[in-house]
Specification:
By secondary structure, the protein is mostly helical. It contains four helices and no strands.
C-alpha cells in the first residue's frame, strides 16, 4: 500500500507504514477505513475462515 491508500482511508502515510510493519495496533475504525479504501479499488476481502478452507 502507499500514499494513495492512506489518503483514501483518511490516515497519514506514517500510520499506514506503522500498521504494515507491525509497529501499531490500529483502531477498528482505521481497519474499516482501510478495508473500504481497498474495496473501492476492486480488492475483495475474505474472512479468515474462508482463507483457511481454501488451502485445505
Amino acid at each position: 500500500m502507499g500514499t494513495e491508500h492512506a489518503a483514501a482511508a483518511g490516515i497519514a502515510v506514517s500510520v499506514l507504514q506503522a500498521i504494515e510493519q507491525g509497529r501499531s495496533d490500529p483502531k477498528l475504525s482505521t481497519v474499516l477505513a482501510l478495508a473500504d479504501a481497498l474495496k473501492t479499488r476492486g480488492v475483495e476481502l475474505m474472512p479468515e475462515s474462508e482463507l483457511r478452507g481454501a488451502s485445505s
